[in-house]
Design goal:
With about 475 residues, the protein is α/β, with parallel strands linked by helices. The protein has 14 helices and 23 strands. Bound molecules: nicotinamide-adenine-dinucleotide (NAD).
């Protein structure tokens, strides 16, 4: 038995954030990871997906270069170089992996290579060794959900695990994306912009981001994708796929009837499930709910077993790396005997890195109304924004939902750099700012952020350019 102050089970964003933060507070930490430190986010999720989205953006920009006064030599048409895009994607992941490994070493976190299991006394067993701790944090993460009977072969039928690690020499010519949530929308955006004939099959009535964002901003993305060539089928029920000589046949039914679609690749992006089936929870007395999530007190992140905590995708909170970071901080501070404020799950930042990007924090208009608020809503399109025109990207909208005469309840964006612009809105929502206060603050001219300032000013009944 080796003793530490803290044993962390899993080395993804939740796990490494817990380990780094605890080590910075002077705790001795062991972190068990069976694959590479960095987890889904670094190796099969956020980072590689965003690298591919950036490749698509560069390709799109080069395609529009002539509009900006940059001429390609006659007869030259830009084309995607998929292996080069993936080489760059892999290079970024490797660099971040080396950086993270170095940081863990410098903080003297003991990284134990292997599969850990909780033991009856709340310790963690790995390959014959037992790591005991004053406290344990479970950060077991999640894996892609799959469709029963649809075999994932990693070539023709793939999940985001494969799509973020593609080593093929070219893009598929035709792709079907099953599930129009965050992953489906991001990959539909990449593929469509890279010239792949892309069909999105979503079970719910809205085909693109049906759950989560305010409809007004999600619809701007849906319209942009459709205009660029994505074929979107809402209310689609996908049947059993069949391998054909040329690819995969995907049968599906919508209210309009039955169809069959032959594609070169199917991406299954219908959500993720917690990876908790073999972590020894039962032996340790850690309760798991019927969906497989570790049960925690959302305020403290402690499980049903005192001294054992859980954070990240293995608990039923938003499956976002930055939420896992925030949860890791709360859990470690609890272990340190402090009394941190709980994570405010209704107000976390959400970003979908599609083109155009979608981002939000707080309540949608529909949620605010359903919660019984008397709401006031103002919107400002990017169409007249000088900076957006200069970029050539005027597809976008700012939407602010406030309680009439009261604070900002929700902040919604779609458009260029929404991912970066969001944080002003995130602060407004979390500090419960009044639109009149936010409207007094100066936004640089010309900037995309001006559209946010303009929206806030509109709440006064007056306006500048709005
Ligand atoms: P999701 O839950 O966002 O979307 C899944 C979609 O699939 C839903 O719209 C659902 O209605 C649909 N669906 C389910 N079963 C279906 C079926 N049989 N046929 C057709 N459609 C079906 O899940 P995701 O996109 O797989 O993402 C998984 C997780 O990863 C989420 O927790 C997400 O927050 C996280 N993620 C976040 C980001 C980001 O923050 N930018 C990016 C990627 C993933």
């Amino acid at each position: 038995m080796t003793d530490y102050d803290l044993v962390v089970l899993g080395g993804g964003p939740g796990g490494y954030a817990a380990a780094l933060y605890a080590a910075s507070a002077g705790l001795s930490v062991a972190m068990v990871e069976e694959q590479k430190v960095g987890g889904t986010c670094l190796h099969r999720g956020c980072i590689p997906a965003k690298a591919l989205l950036h490749a698509a953006e560069v390709f799109r920009t080069v395609g529009h270069a002539a509009e900006h006064g940059v001429k390609l030599p006659a007869g030259v048409t830009p084309e995607p170089d998929w292996p080069a895009a993936n080489k760059r994607r892999a290079g970024i992941v490797n660099q971040l992996h080396r950086g993270l490994s170095g940081l863990l070493r410098r903080r003297k976190v003991t990284v134990v290579d292997g599969r850990g299991r909780l033991t009856a006394d709340g310790a963690v067993a790995v390959d014959g060794d037992t790591l005991g701790g004053r406290a344990t944090i479970i950060c077991a993460g999640s894996v892609p959900r799959t469709i029963p009977g649809m075999e994932i072969d990693g070539k023709r039928v793939v999940t985001s695990d494969h799509a973020t690690n593609d080593e093929s020499d070219r893009l598929p010519e035709r792709a079907a994306v099953i599930g129009g949530g965050v992953i489906g929308a991001e990959f539909a955006s990449v593929y469509t912009d890279m010239g792949v004939q892309t069909t999105l099959l979503e079970a719910l009535p809205h085909g693109v981001l049906p759950i989560g964002p305010d409809r007004d901003v999600a619809d701007v993305l849906a319209r942009s994708l459709t205009r660029r060539g994505t074929v979107v089928h809402p209310e689609a029920r996908v049947g059993a796929v069949e391998h054909t000589g040329g690819g995969v046949m995907v049968p599906f039914e919508t209210p309009k009837g039955s169809e069959k679609l032959e594609v070169d690749q199917v991406l299954v992006s219908i959500g993720r499930r917690p990876a908790t089936e073999d972590i020894g929870a039962q032996e340790a007395g850690v309760r798991i709910d019927e969906r497989g999530f570790v049960d925690v007190d959302p305020a403290t992140l402690q499980t049903s077993r005192p001294g054992v905590y859980a954070v990240g995708d293995c608990i039923a909170t938003p499956g976002l790396a930055h939420v896992a970071y925030a949860e890791a901080v709360v859990a470690v501070e609890r272990i340190l005997g402090e009394d941190p404020p709980p994570v405010d799950y209704g107000k976390v930042p959400w970003v979908v890195y599609t083109h155009p990007e979608v981002a939000w924090s707080g309540m949608t208009e529909a949620e605010a109304r359903a919660a019984g608020h008397d709401v006031e809503v103002h919107k400002h399109a990017l169409a007249g924004n000088g900076r957006a025109m200069i970029l050539g990207e005027t597809d976008g909208l700012v939407k602010v939902v406030a309680r009439r005469g009261g604070p900002i309840l929700g902040f919604h964006l779609v458009g260029p750099w929404a991912s970066e612009l969001l944080h002003e809105g995130y602060l407004s929502v979390n500090w419960e700012a009044l639109p009149s206060e936010a409207g007094r603050l100066i936004h640089a001219h010309p900037s995309l952020s001006e559209a946010i300032g303009e929206t806030m000013i509109t709440f006064s009944g007056r306006s500048l350019h709005g």
